Amino acid sequence: MTDKNFSFLQNCKNAIITGASSGIGLEYAKQLAARKINLILLARRKDRLEEICQELSNHYDISVTYISVDLSKIDEVQKVCQEILKISPVDILINCAGFATLGELSSVSFETHSQMITLHINTVVALCHSIIPKMQEQNRGIIINVASIGAFIPTRGNSVYSATKAFLITFSENINLELERTNIIVQAICPGFTKTEFHQVGHFSNFDSSIIPRKLWMSVTDVVSTSLAKLKKNKVIVIPGLKNRLFVRFYQSFIIQTFIKSQRKKALKKSLNSIR
Ligand SMILES: NC(=O)c1ccc[n+]([C@@H]2O[C@H](COP(=O)([O-])OP(=O)(O)OC[C@H]3O[C@@H](n4cnc5c(N)ncnc54)[C@H](OP(=O)(O)O)[C@@H]3O)[C@@H](O)[C@H]2O)c1
């Protein structure tokens, strides 16, 4: 197997980041800019992207360009893939664009679910599909897919979101296997609660994030620093933050799983009895 432990980030020239107009994506942009890596930023808000491009290119003396695109529309994504093929080399691809909904499956419109599935799944597959052959030609590259700890913990009101994030984890593990003999690193970073605009936009615009204990939040700086630092370890699934790791491990533990199963059995029995 190829030793992937070379100084990746120092050798990288260009990075493509989706969801770079705020939050975690913007932080990846800042931390890569500080390493003198040229950036191509993707998101919908043109004014934000313009401002970020100007700020980062002036501050770090690098090339920062943007494509304003709705990545939940597959025809727009296909056009972007064509544009990206003209860029050379592409060393880093960060799939970060995303959003969540609040409410059980049927209380959210199918159109919204469909947009999420396109954004979290189809777009990521399309971008990887375009870029991986280029990375294979270069025999180097980094792909980071931003998933979530929500993928490990089933909850009510997040069915499609959690399932799309679980897809990203399995997809990352599988493409990592396919790329095992190359110098291409694949990571699925799984953040927990992170301070961004995520809990303020769309369905979350009236959400009171103060109900989530302060200690559970992580900063974007810590999430992204962990993600970049862990590239050296060549580990596919990365959960930033000890509390998040313990939370996932606790949930997956045998005792908790047995308890959950017994609770589900009791609930099923109760509802069957009420039908009879
Ligand atoms: N914050 C958390 O607690 C948390 C936890 C676990 C995982 N995550 C994941 O982290 C990723 C980044 O989220 P964040 O926390 O940084 O939230 P954020 O601040 O709301 O950023 C979301 C980014 O995605 C972009 N985006 C959303 N819909 C898009 C679309 N249709 N087309 C193109 N770009 C789109 C937004 O840009 P425009 O609005 O300009 O298009 C923005 O740049 C998401 O995938 C999310 O699932 C977040």
Short description, anyone?
With about 280 residues, this protein is α/β, with parallel strands linked by helices.
Task: List descriptors.
7-stranded parallel β-sheet, alpha/beta, binds NADP nicotinamide-adenine-dinucleotide phosphate, 276 residues
Note the topology.
Layout: H1 8-11, E1 14-18, H2 23-33, E2 38-43, H3 46-60, E3 64-68, H4 74-85, E4 92-95, H5 110-138, E5 141-146, H6 159-178, E6 184-189, H7 220-230, E7 237-238, H8 242-252, H9 254-275
Parallel strand pairs: 1-2, 1-4, 2-3, 4-5, 5-6, 6-7
Bound molecules: NADP nicotinamide-adenine-dinucleotide phosphate.
What does this structure look like?
- The chain is α/β, with parallel strands linked by helices and 276 residues long.
- It has a single domain, classed as NAD(P)-binding Rossmann-like Domain (Rossmann fold, 3-Layer(aba) Sandwich), CATH 3.40.50.720.
- It contains nine helices and seven strands.
- It has a seven-stranded parallel β-sheet, sandwiched between helices.
- The longest helix has 29 residues, at 110-138.
- The protein is globular, with a radius of gyration of 20 Å.
- The chain binds NADP nicotinamide-adenine-dinucleotide phosphate.
- NADP nicotinamide-adenine-dinucleotide phosphate binds at residues 19-25, 43-45, 48, 70-72, 96-99, 119, 146, 148, 191, 193-194, 196-198, 201.
